[in-house]
Write a structure and sequence with these properties.
The complex is a heterotrimer.
Chain A (H helix, E strand, L loop, with lengths): L14 H37 L4 H14 L1 H26 L7 H16 L8 H30 L3 H20 L34 H18 L1 H11 L1 H6 L4 H28 L10 H11 L4 H16 L1 H8 L5 H16 L19
Helix pairs in contact in A: 1-14, 2-3, 2-12, 2-13, 3-7, 3-10, 3-11, 3-12, 4-5, 4-6, 4-10, 4-11, 5-6, 5-10, 7-8, 7-12, 8-10, 11-12, 11-14
Chain B lengths: L9 E10 L2 E11 L4 E5 L6 H9 L6 E6 L2 E3 L4 H6 L2 E4 L11 H8 L9 H14 L15 H14 L4 E5 L7 H16 L4 E6 L2 H7 L2 E6 L2 E7 L5 H9 L18 E11 L5 E11 L2 E6 L6 H8 L7 E6 L2 E2 L4 H7 L1 E4 L3 H4 L7 H5 L10 E2 L3 E2 L1 H14 L16 H13 L5 E5 L7 H16 L3 E5 L3 H7 L2 E6 L2 E7 L5 H8 L5
Parallel strand pairs in B: 3-8, 3-9, 6-7, 7-8, 13-20, 13-21, 16-19, 19-20
Antiparallel strand pairs in B: 1-2, 1-4, 4-5, 9-10, 11-12, 11-14, 14-15, 17-18, 21-22
Chain C lengths: L2 H35 L7 H19 L2 H23 L6 H20 L13 E2 L7 H6 L1 E2 L1 H19 L1 H11 L1 H6 L4 H25 L13 H11 L4 H23 L6 H5 L1 H14 L2 H6 L9
Antiparallel strand pairs in C: 1-2
Helix pairs in contact in C: 1-6, 1-9, 1-10, 1-11, 2-3, 2-4, 2-9, 2-10, 3-4, 3-9, 6-7, 6-11, 7-9, 10-11, 10-13, 11-13
Classes of the chains: A mainly alpha, B alpha/beta, C mainly alpha.
């Protein structure tokens, strides 16, 4: 079926310009299709709102207002975007290895809980730096172990990682509840069962100039660092081979098992870091409010960003904004708080359906492959 | 079964099929009279599969017509083909592995009662088998049958469905020579009695000469010739098939004297995915500058052996030694002992389909300078530069080094892999069905490269289901049967028949 | 409380709990089994379960008939299954990811429309008393059986029979085991998968109806916490066999009933830990069964889960 015997078979002509063009086309495809999916979901959601007798224009205006319109809404947005960036990384890193892991919620909760538990004996001890280093290390280690466990089960026992990570999330929440409502409950706290709270002076402070805690800076640095690790190093390249074709990776002598373990450990550490900042900078303690769905938003963000660590940042900010606007939408339009969840679910469904267009649109793929047997 | 059909004749006139801008079938005609055994010859990509898929209604032809017993028939899908009495046995079995033989036969019937009366069905099947010239087990799940039993069951299925024009797509590729002769002989008998008509896709001249009445040859999607088998000598068939394609000369075999053992496989055992024993105590020594060919019917442990050697399957027992030192298939030892491989179906075993050609070519070298700095920093520039050199040197036809490798044709994917694996020094080369599904010219080139490595002193292990490939390349041949080496001999001291008997598991 | 009495109380409570807790597991597992037998995996049944619970409650409240609620839950489950199958038939779309999306989507829809139904009380499904013969009020209470439980058992037996003895059953198995074979036989693979996924969704919806209309018997946003997902794992453990799905669901029911049963005799220590018991049990069962060679042999050939 090939004509390799013809003299022009060697691809010597026009290599350089066509290389460049191919990269541009592939890049714009990865940008255009998710954007189109976002637009389509916005359209579908508008139709949905119209059917309920609500105004889509008002909805999007409120999203703008509540998420991006003022300095206050921006800080609200970034406050939510920071943990979502990290939980999205917890999805995107394993995805590079071909694993669909959705356990960010569990690693966040357990990481946050660990940080809070480590803090209990140290609160008010006068050594906040020491305390925070221990909390940070503990949260990262436990988050890493949680997702790494799913990676190990996948690699060595063939346990489906999607189901196991989700199960581990439920188990993580149960573990936190077990301690927060039992042994580690702070009897002095009149509200819902929680661990002992950090003193406000011991909490992690704001970034200079904006009203957002340091977690945002760490999240941004994590995104960039993961980008470098996965796209610019031999480790990332090996992960890409193993993720694309484990058999080929093994035939190249690559330690696929070790790559899976290391990558899932890093993924879990990211989510654990999100938990640390939720405790150390937002809540000051561990309780049921740790499990508010940042892990699940992270899944959507990672898919929408096509598992690219740098693209995760703007997408996380977009969904942070939508979440930040949730309250105002609820009050002004009389919509239930599940509106944001519904919009996310709808976007996710449309986005996955749009995956079918990759490699099949003529503008991005000048010579679409012909079917041949 | 009442009103049993007899053999039917079929004629395809000026069939045409275009995929995209590519003419896959260019006004091809074919005539198969009732009760004959017809061979359809051609190399891979010649359009044989496209032609029969048009006849079967899998594809909608862009031109031409099909006459069944002289009447024009519009066959829109495989079900209509079945109603017209045309059935096909595919190269890859279409029996359902988890269903029993009986369930497979019953479910293949186009119509039937919604609730199955198994008692009546079993009685009917027994009565049907009693009338057939051969049998196959009906009560075991198909995945427990041997390849020969499966092939017989496939053919029985067509007869059970009362199909009297049977198309066979490379029916003997999974059979031992003896099994192949048995099955084809039985079919030959049935055509002679006028029970069925057979159209067999093949590229094996031996089978054409032994069993077929007539032949039609396709080349590059077009009609290349036809005739009576009795009046067509083999070299005429070959000329029709290949045309005047220029083929690169294969390097001559350089004699190696008293070469040391390079690869020593000692007592190697490994399990299959489902826990059954895949290979059981393999012992084999391969010398420098030697090609050892491993023959065998597929599924007798050859792929497991290759997987163990290339690190894709854990070794349960045994030891691998290269030049006297222990060898574990890790990246470091592969580089140290210069172990390389050409697997079958490279897109599945050796390449990552959605990575670029340049990236795929860098799989061996991405962690070494100049691509890697300090052992971990990756530079895209040197990677692309090296890929472009190798693309030019090995004449890989690709729109760009940055195109995903999956966009390349099979021959060019294998060339890209070849460029990656063979461009440096090679001491051990593990090869498995390297030419599976490739066109004639690529096949010759790849075989020449393997011979070239041998001549430069590499120890080559060649696993192949194509006995001709083994006979033409190997210095020694080993036969694998049921996970064991059943036979080892120097190529000069053995022949096709002896190897065939050992493949079937009954050596002398 | 003396030890013997405590033990029989725990056993009675576990028995009753198991029978109650089993039903949604059983329906979702049978639905997933059917879907996976066609060669697809639908991880979204958790969302379908929640949506089914909400619609059942809403329709029961609106019409006054809990059985109309059950039917409505099934129909919405059918729609969710249809949506899953419709998206998955597009080339290049991953069924596992679509399942995750539908899990979020189903939950979102249920929470969005379910807000007004958290407060009101809807008519619940009746139960049948089968425990009068024991003469022990604890066991009488435990053997208050919901008709859906019996329907679920009958369904498991029927599916086991149908997969072997009907043409449709055989065709479904062909499709799940070898797409190429199904196509060669001229069967509409995508349509068969669509039907299997949609009917599987119907079953999961009915399982959700049980949650809101019988046990626990009210609608709220914390109603299902992973039962749908555990049922998916259970199908692997049951190696795609309807009867083994029934046994596995009973086992899960018993594990799920452990926490409340211990609470009934005043053991409150570790209540949250026992709440985690079903998840941990699921995980261990997955570890035990996923790597097993037997499971690999029985898995439908087209299933992406085990590849």
């Amino acid at each position: 079926m090939t004509d390799i015997t013809s003299p022009q078979s060697a691809s010597t002509h026009g290599i350089f310009d066509s290389d460049w063009m191919i990269r541009v086309r592939r890049g714009s495809e990865a940008l255009a299709i998710p954007l189109a999916a976002l637009l389509v979901s916005a359209l579908l959601f508008s139709i949905f709102l119209l059917a309920l007798g609500k105004s889509p224009a008002q909805f999007f205006q409120l999203v703008w207002l509540g998420g991006f319109g003022t300095a206050f809404s921006w800080s609200n947005t970034l406050l939510r975007a920071a943990p979502v960036m990290l939980t999205a990384l917890a999805v995107a890193i394993p995805a590079r290895l071909g694993l669909t892991m959705i356990g960010g919620e569990g690693a966040l909760v357990l990481g946050g809980f660990t940080a809070a538990a480590i803090a209990i004996p140290l609160i008010g001890s006068g050594a906040p730096l020491f305390m925070h280093i221990l909390m940070f290390a503990g949260a990262l280690a436990v988050g890493a172990a949680w997702v790494g466990l799913a990676g190990a089960l996948r690699q060595f026992r063939g346990v489906n990682e999607t189901i196991s990570t989700l199960l581990l999330s439920y188990i993580a929440i149960a573990i936190m509840n077990f301690f927060v409502e039992g042994a580690l409950r702070d009897p002095a706290d009149p509200n819902k069962p929680s661990t002992k709270a950090l003193e406000s002076a011991e909490m992690i402070g704001k970034l200079p100039g904006i009203d957002v805690h340091w977690g945002l800076a760490f999240a941004v640095v994590a995104c960039v660092a993961v980008y470098i690790l996965m796209f610019r190093t031999t480790f990332g390249f090996a992960c890409k081979i193993a993720g694309g074709n484990a058999r080929a990776a093994l035939a190249q002598g690559l330690p696929v098992g070790r790559l899976v373990i290391v990558a899932t450990l890093i993924a879990g550490a990211c989510a654990g870091m999100a938990g640390y900042f939720e405790v150390a900078a937002v809540h000051g303690k561990a309780n049921a409010s740790l499990a508010t769905g940042y892990g699940f938003t992270g899944i959507l963000v990672a898919f929408l960003a096509r598992q690219h660590p740098l693209a995760i940042m703007p997408v996380a900010i977009l969904f942070g904004g939508i979440a930040a606007a949730g309250g105002i939408i609820q009050r002004r339009m009389g919509l239930p708080d599940a509106t944001v969840l519904l919009l996310q679910g709808m976007t996710f469904v449309v986005l996955l359906a749009s995956e079918t267009f990759y490699g099949r649109l003529a503008i991005f793929n000048p010579k679409a492959r012909t079917e041949r047997t | 079964m009442t009103g049993e059909r007899r053999a039917i004749g079929l004629e395809a006139v000026k069939m045409r099929k275009v995929f995209g801008g590519l003419v896959a079938l260019d006004d091809v005609s074919l005539k198969v009279p009732a009760g004959t055994f017809h061979a359809l010859l051609g190399e891979n990509g010649a359009g044989k599969s496209t032609l029969v898929k048009c006849i079967m209604g899998f594809y909608k032809p862009d031109g031409g017509q099909v006459l069944v017993d002289g009447r024009q028939s519009a066959i829109a899908n495989p079900r209509e083909a079945a109603e017209a009495g045309i059935g096909m046995v595919y190269q890859h079995f279409t029996l359902v592995p988890s269903l029993t033989g009986a369930e497979n036969l019953v479910v293949s019937r186009p119509r039937g009662r919604q609730i199955i009366d198994w008692k009546a069905e079993h009685a009917a099947l027994e009565e049907f088998l009693a009338r057939m010239p051969f049998r196959a087990p009906l009560d075991k799940p198909v995945h427990m049958l041997s390849a020969g039993e499966k092939q017989k069951l496939e053919i029985l299925k067509q007869l059970f469905l009362d199909q009297r024009f049977i198309i066979l797509d490379e029916p003997t590729s999974v059979l031992t020579p003896d099994e192949a002769d048995e099955v084809l002989g039985l079919l030959r008998g049935m055509t002679k009695r006028g029970d069925v008509t057979v159209l067999m896709i093949t590229h094996k001249f031996r089978e054409v000469q032994a069993f077929a009445d007539d032949l039609t040859v396709l080349r590059k999607g077009g009609y290349a010739g036809a005739g009576k088998v009795a009046e067509t000598p083999v070299d005429a068939m070959a000329k029709m098939m290949i045309g005047d394609t220029q083929i690169r000369e294969r390097a001559a075999r350089v004699a190696q004297k008293d070469a040391p053992v390079t690869l020593d496989i000692a007592g190697v055992c490994a399990d299959a995915d489902d826990g059954r024993v895949a290979i059981d105590g393999i012992n084999l020594k391969i010398h420098a500058g030697e090609i050892v060919g491993i023959a065998g019917v597929s599924g007798n442990g050859q792929s497991a052996l290759v997987e163990v050697l290339s690190g894709q399957r854990p070794m349960r027992e045994g030891q691998l030694t290269i030049k006297g030192s222990d060898f574990i298939p890790s990246r470091q030892s592969m580089a140290k002992y210069k172990v390389f491989g050409l697997p079958e179906e490279p897109l599945k075993n050796a390449a990552v389909p959605n990575m670029t050609v340049a990236e795929n070519i860098a799989f061996r070298t991405f962690d070494q300078p100049p691509i890697a700095t300090l052992g971990w920093w990756l530079s895209a520039g040197p990677m692309r530069k090296r890929a472009q050199e190798l693309i030019a040197r090995y004449r890989v036809k690709t729109p760009s080094a940055d195109a995903p490798i999956a966009a390349l044709s099979g021959g060019n994917v294998q060339r890209a892999v070849l460029a990656r694996e063979l461009s440096g020094e090679v001491d051990v080369l593990i090869v498995a069905n390297p030419c599976f599904g490739l066109d004639f010219a690529s096949v010759e080139e790849i075989r020449a490269q393997i011979m070239d490595q041998r001549n430069r002193g590499a120890a080559v292990l060649l696993v192949s289901e194509d006995l001709d490939e083994i006979l033409s390349l190997s210095d020694r041949v080993a036969v694998m049967s049921e996970g064991k080496i059943a036979y080892v001999e120097e190529i000069a001291k053995t022949d096709r028949a002896t190897i065939g008997h050992h493949m079937a598991g009954h050596g002398h | 409380m003396d030890a013997g009495l405590a033990l029989s109380t725990v056993i009675a409570a576990m028995l009753g709990g198991a029978i109650r807790v089993t039903t949604p597991f059983l329906f979702v597992a049978l639905g997933e089994m059917l879907t996976e037998r066609s060669g697809r995996i639908n991880l979204g049944l958790e969302g379908t379960l929640v949506l089914g619970a909400m619609t059942a409650y809403a329709f029961s409240y609106g019409t006054g008939s809990p059985w109309i609620g059950v039917l409505a839950a099934g129909c919405f489950g059918f729609l969710m299954g249809t949506l899953h199958a419709t998206i998955c038939r597009l080339p290049g779309v991953n069924d596992i990811a679509v399942g995750i999306a539908l899990m979020l989507f189903g939950t979102g829809v249920a929470f969005f429309f379910g807000k007004p139904y958290i407060q009101p009380t809807a008519p619940r499904l009746p139960s049948i008393s089968l425990g009068a013969w024991t003469g022990d009020p604890r066991f009488e209470q435990a053997l208050q059986i919901n008709p859906l439980f019996l329907i679920g058992i009958a369904l498991a037996i029927f599916l086991a029979w149908a997969l072997k003895n009907t043409r449709m059953g055989l065709v479904l198995r062909v499709t799940g085991d070898s797409e190429a074979a199904a196509r060669a036989l001229g069967h509409p693979v995508m349509l068969i998968r669509l039907l299997a996924t949609a009917v599987g969704g119907f079953f999961a919806g009915v399982g959700g109806a049980f949650l809101s209309l019988y046990y626990p018997g009210s609608w709220n946003e914390g109603l299902s916490s992973g039962q749908g997902l555990m049922a998916v794992a259970l199908v692997i453990f049951a190696r795609w066999d309807p009867i083994r799905c029934l046994y596995a669901a009973l086992l899960f029911g018993a594990a799920g009933a452990l926490g409340p049963a211990l609470q009934s005799i005043g053991v409150t220590q570790g209540y949250y830990f026992f709440n985690a018991a079903p998840y941990i049990l699921t995980l261990f069962l997955m570890i035990g069964s996923a790597g097993s060679k037997k499971a690999l042999r029985d898995a439908p050939g087209e299933l992406s889960l085990t590849r």
